[in-house]
Amino acid sequence: MWSSVILVAPARSVASQARAEDAYLATLAGQLRAIHLPDGRALWQSSLPSSFKTPLSLSIPRLEQLGYVLAESRHNGDAALVPFSLQSGKLGRPIEVGLPGAVAIAPDGRMAWVANSGNLEGLPGPTGTTVTPVNLRTRQRLRPIPVGGQPGGIALTPDGARLLVTLVDRQSVVPISTTGGRVGAPIPLPTSSPSSVPQRETDPGPIIIDEPEGVAFVGNLQEDLVFPADVTNVINLKTLRAEPPISMGPFADSAQALVATPDGRSVFSMSYLGLLRINVAARRADLAIPNSYLVSAMAIDNHNLYVSQELYSPPNLTDSQPKTPGYALVPINLSSMAPGPAVTTTATLTTAIALHWTGT
After folding, report:
1. Residue 286, pLDDT above cutoff 70
2. What CATH number has the domain bearing residue 167?
3. 285: left (phi over 0), alpha (psi -120 to 50) or beta
4. CB of 67 within 8 A of CB of 60?
5. Helix or strand or coil: residue 253?
6. Among 12, 106, 335, 345, which residue has the fewest nearby CB atoms (within 10 Å)?
7. Is 240 left (phi over 0), alpha (psi -120 to 50) or beta?
């Protein structure tokens, strides 16, 4: 057993969260970049040690001046959290966490939890059944917590009391106490919407908290190229029970990632078909932006959804026509859903984006 004390910051007001000031990008080549928004001015660039391959995610605790990149080792397939300075990009000593997966970090930056998922594609490869707590102050990896199935995603509740972990192979979500590591009773998830023919099994993956609405949203993964359940599941944070799922209709596709607007009104799902938008109050989904370009990562503030898109020149080229390589960070206005001019470009695929509000 293990224990920790988590200091949870009061929720920032919508006004204080109005606009991100800096963006941080991780690329397939192992580069980390910081840029100022909205002009795209470069702040710094650094590279992960050669012992690591693809950066998988970026996390920035709300009250810290450190960020963390989760990267997979080239040697054994395990992963590590690599701290970096938000001001300079200087890297700290990596903290080994076991198999890679989704990451949740407390707002005060004291603790992190890594869902040791391993391979989430349903194909041959290592998979895990634990969540690993990490004391970021002491840089200690604590005893992994068995969760009874393969974890797909992880999120910390606003009060800091629980983690919610999706189980890909159990069609459920399990709560974990952050003070003792006790795993609670699974929360079963509906398998699909009533209109789905045939019925599709739930493969819960990414999970996010919509704090203003008091719910968690769970997206479904695509495994072995089988269609995922055509819903986004909803969990009430007070009752820890599933609410009726939200039908994704003809837009149903694998949820690679989810983000929620700070005001809680909209949730965006990144899928192979495009960017899907959920109207939280109406519990209704629509296709926000067709995926005519590859979207590989996204992040959000109250004004813009920032996405990394593959650059083609011009768009809609055939396979035989020359293409201009590269990827652009594009802001999409949340009011009009119109994309703006690219903020910056990268030569290789952007695998993760994180935003930061300075002075918060």
Report:
1. yes
2. 2.130.10.10
3. beta
4. yes
5. coil
6. 335
7. left
**pTM, to two decimals:** 0.89
Q: Rounding to the nearest 10 degrees, give the CA dihedral for residues 57, 59, 65, 66.
A: -50
Residue 339 has which token pair?
């994309």
- Confirm whether 84 is domain-assigned: no
CA atoms within 13 A on the CB side of 329: 31
Q: Tokens for 188?
A: 């079963």
Neighbours of 321 (CB within 10 A): 10
Strand partners, 259: 268
- Helices (H) then strands (E): counts for the chain: 0, 29
* pLDDT for 259: 95
Average pLDDT of the residues of the chain = 85
Question: Structural domain tally of the chain?
Answer: 1
User: pLDDT confidence of 314, banded at 50, 70, 90?
Assistant: very low
